[in-house]
Amino acid sequence: MERTLIIIKPDGVERNLIGPIITRFEQRGLKIVGMKMLQVSDQLARQHYAVHEGKSFFEPLIEYITSAPVVVMALEGPQAVQAARNTIGATKPVEATAGSIRGDFGMMVGRNLVHGSDSPENGAAEIALWFDESELVSYERVVDRWILE
Ligand code: DAT
Ligand code: MG
């Protein structure tokens, strides 16, 4: 089963959107297998966004993600990465489809509310970066037979 790392970024937390954002993923049928709130360190932020190092938006991005607490989740499901990214919407909120999180709640790329891993490999790597194995759970949901065929 595929896993993806979701981050509710500082604007999502500060704007009281933790609940509405989690609801989108829960309603979709993705299973939460890890969840916590933390203040991101400068070091963790730079590790997480290492692929963007050197780009013009890198330093503002580090400042943004470390500016207030975040909520991180590990979500599981078939094609969890793609499902979550569709629920999140396009990187630039003005280009995100209405009905997606960014399309419904966002205006600007530097305040786009949520992170989602972009491949199954990065999903696994990002979950390993943000979570200790002991913080992840494995459980059966009774409703799964009504969500997964
Ligand atoms: P995504 O978060 O949709 O996976 P990404 O991995 O390309 O997007 O970039 C990571 C974050 O960096 C993104 O959520 C917001 C910021 N960012 C990306 N492209 C940007 C740009 N052209 N200008 C400003 N910020 C940008
Ligand atoms: Mg990305």
Number of domains: 1
Major pleated sheet: 4 strands, antiparallel
- CATH superfamily assignment? Nucleoside diphosphate kinase-like domain
CATH A-level architecture? 2-Layer Sandwich
Q: What is the N-to-C order of secondary-structure elements (H for helix, E for strand)?
A: EHHEHHEHHEHH
How far from one another are the termini? 13 Å
The gyration radius over C-alpha positions equals: 15 Å
The best one-word shape is globular
Bound molecules: 2'-deoxyadenosine-5'-diphosphate, magnesium ion
SSE order and pairing:
Blueprint: E1 2-8, H1 10-14, H2 18-28, E2 31-38, H3 42-48, H4 58-65, E3 70-77, H5 80-88, H6 101-105, E4 114-116, H7 120-130, H8 144-147
Antiparallel strand pairs: 1-3, 1-4, 2-3
Bound molecules: 2'-deoxyadenosine-5'-diphosphate and magnesium ion (MG).
Account of the protein in words:
This protein has 149 residues and is an alpha+beta fold. The protein has one domain (2-37, 70-147): Nucleoside diphosphate kinase-like domain (Alpha-Beta Plaits), CATH 3.30.70. It is built from eight helices and four strands; from the N terminus they run βααβααβααβαα. The chain has helices spanning 10-14, 18-28, 42-48, 58-65, 80-88, 101-105, 120-130, 144-147, and strands spanning 2-8, 31-38, 70-77, 114-116. Strands 2-3-1-4 form a four-stranded antiparallel beta sheet. The mean pLDDT is 98. 2'-deoxyadenosine-5'-diphosphate (DAT) binds at residues 52, 57, 61, 91, 109-110, 112, 115, 118.
